[in-house]
Amino acid sequence: MKKLVLFAIILLTFAQLCGTAFAGNGDKAEITFKYDRLSGHATNQFAIWVEDAEGKYVDTVYATRFTATGGWEKRPAALHRWVGHAEVAKMNKAEIDAITGATPKAGTLTYTWDLTDKNGKKLPDGPYMILLEATLRDENSVVYRALVEVGGDSVTLHPIPKYAGKDEADRKMISEVTVRYIGD
Fold first, then answer.
1. Which regions in the chain score pLDDT beneath 50?
2. pTM, whole model, 2 decimals?
């Protein structure tokens, strides 16, 4: 019994030391926003992705399934920035399945980027741009951009939307966007 207790103490001490040594492994970025579903045709599509400091595509955090699985061909205006940057036409079914989901219900949504690239490789410290693009309706869209410094201090950002299109009524679809980088 004493050996078992001693072993448990040693194991717990080792686990605490490892947890301290690898504290950076818990780093992540969270993208949170209020989502109000719109009714009607050509609405409710969004994608979240990451680019490096040079604007090169790094990874997709999430994309609505309709657009990612070919909806971009039927509706070329749907998430056209993401479709181009991510080179969706070159993605295979497994890649699409890994990043997509059904269009969610209305409410506050949170998506997490684990600071890896599209192959699951941990990225080096440095600046990365997190983008949220939404097709509000037909040609009406919005893009939010937030620059985070991976390896830097934790920070919460409130990116400013950039709208395209004229119908202001649809702008309520995505609001209250927050990007939170959680570092060491």
1. 1, 3-24
2. 0.84
Report the distance separating Cα 66 and Cα 74, nearest Å. Answer: 10
Task: Show Cβ contacts of residue 28 under 8 Å, excluding neighbours closer than 6 positions.
Answer: 112, 113, 114, 115, 181, 182
In Å, how far from its chain's centre is CA 174?
Answer: 14
Phi, psi of 127 (to 5 degrees): -80, 140
Q: What is the pLDDT of residue 183?
A: 87
For residues 135 and 138, what is the distance between their CA atoms, to the nearest angstrom? 7
Report the residue count for the chain: 184
Provide the 3-class DSSP secondary structure of residue 180: strand
Q: At 64, phi and psi to the nearest 5?
A: -65, 140
